[in-house]
Specification:
- This protein has helices at about 1-20, 230-245; strands spanning about 35-40, 45-55, 80-85, 85-90, 95, 100-105, 105-110, 120-125, 130-135, 145-150, 165-170, 175-185, 190-195, 205-210, 220-225, 265-270, 275-280.
- It has about 280 residues and is mainly beta.
- The chain folds into 2 domains: about 35-140 and about 230-275, no CATH class; about 145-225 and about 275-280, Sandwich (Immunoglobulin-like).
Amino acid sequence: MTRNILLAIVAIATVASACNLEQEVEITLPEYDSRPVIEAYLEPGKPFRLLITRSDGYFDEFPSIDNFPGGLLYDSAQVSITHQGVAYELDNQLAFDPTAGKLYNYASSATVPENVGEPFELYIRFPDGTEAFAETSLLPRVPIDSVVIEFPEGDMPEDTLARALTYFTDDPSQVNFYRRVLHAGSLDSLQQDFVADDQIVDDSLIVFGTGFDYAEGDTVINTLYHITEPYATFLESLNAAVSANGNPFGQPSPVISNIEGSANALGIFTGLIYDRRIDIVEQ
């Protein structure tokens, strides 16, 4: 019996050694068609601004320093946003928002009016004659009721760290979607960024928490966005696509956009309505 097992092991080893386990396999990938990528965020009191870039294939070369950011930006499009019968034309020019750290290549001097519930309509005509459309509206701001800084009860050294509990009131008569963003110290230090709907609770009181991560004197910046369902879907699909992109064994995950039209564009057109609280951690 032992001899038979030994012979089987030798036979398997012989077959394995005859195989070329490092054989290269060439896979022919279909040619990737670049698509316009659109980002347009309506923030009341700020100018109408929009970013149009080009999507590239996974293995395409990144634009060189000499051609950056021009190699990414999509220029020469006709862009307008219509609201309450007024069409706001966006010129093809660079604009930078230092607060959000975002660059735009279409902008208007006109500012976004704060008309909750009234539709905004986006229209883009590209140089090749294709078009893109989208529609959105501003939602009412949901205020942060309170931020509670809570230290644990105990005498251990780690008990000197606190957590932050952010409370706000949801309208239970409708389905709402929220984006919770948390920074520590400044808006350059991101701690949390996630999307949630009000189905996570049974009543109107919602609380978002943190770990016991903050020392006395730290600054905690809470931002609560009241977002549309298309924007929530876009953010969740974008996060899933990023995760799939980094996993060679994962299934591709498409980005779900609210941009329509013959241009076959990707992206999002939505309002940015938020409340923000800045708190210092104190005993």
